[in-house]
Design goal:
single chain; 307 residues; alpha/beta; Rossmann fold; UDP-galactose 4-epimerase, domain 1; 2 domains; globular; binds nicotinamide-adenine-dinucleotide
């Protein structure tokens, strides 16, 4: 199949592009390299440096005739979305819509969308949250992810363009940057390997569902299946807090830094953890990399690439 991966120079998108190419698909990548890096680009993909807001994107779609669009490009920083909701919406809502219109008009069969199980549910009422949990996002970023799902539902029901929204937990692993939802892992590793002192904001008991990037990539491969449609959580159903991550990374990096706490950041969710039963029961997906070995692989990556 001919697949467009937006954000294919980024942490998750580059892993997805690699996997699609390994499966023999023809892959084109669009990225504006705002947080993504050229070094992540698979040489087997055709790369077009472009912003998803570019109004000429329709011409590209008409020419290329993509079968599938795997949409990973986004403004990924929750804090940025709080400080500048207009900027967030310009990329995450209007940029996506630009892409969806071009997709619909050129006959794309399916959109695979990177949604967020950490952000669309908001403060949870039950743990772990299934896909039917109320969606009350507490950040402009979470709202933009949910709005994308609503648009995609419209495109499926009214225009016949199918979609899968994969609601990722907090994704960590090789190539990750400090901006995304699991940024704390990359920030701590870099500081510890650099002999600097990381600071834990607040009491460090804020918990998240950390899912390894390789497992997220496998879900994006399954999403190519015609039978998969709608929203699916991609997480582990296990919560870990920041204090635990700090202690684990200190062991793995051999750092001798102290556990230092600073002021809490306001407005952040306290707990987030999602169920993967729907993906498991329907498509046999389950996380394969546990947190300890995933962190080990991530530290190894940063050791290799920071020297
Ligand atoms: N990392 C996580 O924990 C996590 C959790 C839930 C959902 N997601 C979603 O997964 C997707 C990938 O995130 P990531 O962690 O790999 O982040 P990333 O920053 O590494 O990747 C995003 C990519 O999009 C590109 N991009 C940003 N704005 C663009 C624009 N206007 N036009 C073209 N390209 C643009 C960036 O250059 C980058 O390569 C995002 O949609 C993100 O919201 C990530």
């Amino acid at each position: 199949m001919k697949i467009l991966v937006t954000g294919g120079a980024g942490f998750i998108g580059s892993g997805i592009a690699d996997a699609y190419i390994r499966k023999g698909h023809e892959v084109v990548i669009i990225d504006n390299l705002s947080t993504g890096r050229a070094i992540n680009l698979n040489p087997g993909a055709r790369f077009i440096e472009m912003d998803i807001n570019d109004r000429s994107i329709g011409g590209l779609f008409d020419k290329e005739k993509f079968d599938i669009v795997c949409h990973q490009a986004a403004q990924v920083d929750i804090r940025v979305s709080v400080d500048d909701p207009l900027f967030d919406a310009r990329t995450n809502v209007l940029g996506s819509l630009n892409l969806y219109e071009a997709s619909k008009n050129s006959g794309v069969k399916k959109i695979i969308f990177a949604s967020s199980g950490g952000a669309v549910y908001g403060e949870q009422e039950s743990f772990p949250a299934g896909e039917g949990h109320p969606t009350n996002p507490c950040s402009p970023y979470g709202i933009s992810k949910l709005v994308n799902e609503k648009y995609l539902f419209y495109y499926r029901e009214v225009c016949g363009m199918d979609f899968v929204a994969l609601r990722y937990g907090n994704v960590y692993g090789p190539r990750q940057n400090p901006h995304g939802e699991a940024g704390v892992v990359a920030i701590f590793i870099r500081k510890m390997l650099g002999g600097e002192q990381p600071v834990i904001h607040g009491d460090g008991k804020k918990s998240r569902d950390y899912v390894y990037v390789g497992d997220v990539v496998r879900a994006n491969l399954l999403a190519l299946d015609d039978k998969m449609s709608g929203a699916y959580n991609v997480g582990t159903a296990i919560e870990n807090d920041v204090n635990f991550i700090f202690a684990e990374l200190r062991k793995l990096t051999g750092s001798i830094c102290e556990e230092v706490h600073g002021p809490a950041k306001s407005g952040e969710q306290r707990r987030s953890v999602i169920s993967f039963d729907k993906l498991k029961n329907n498509f046999g997906w389950q996380p394969e990399t546990d947190f300890a070995s995933g962190l080990e692989k991530t530290v190894e990556f940063f050791k290799r690439t920071s020297s």
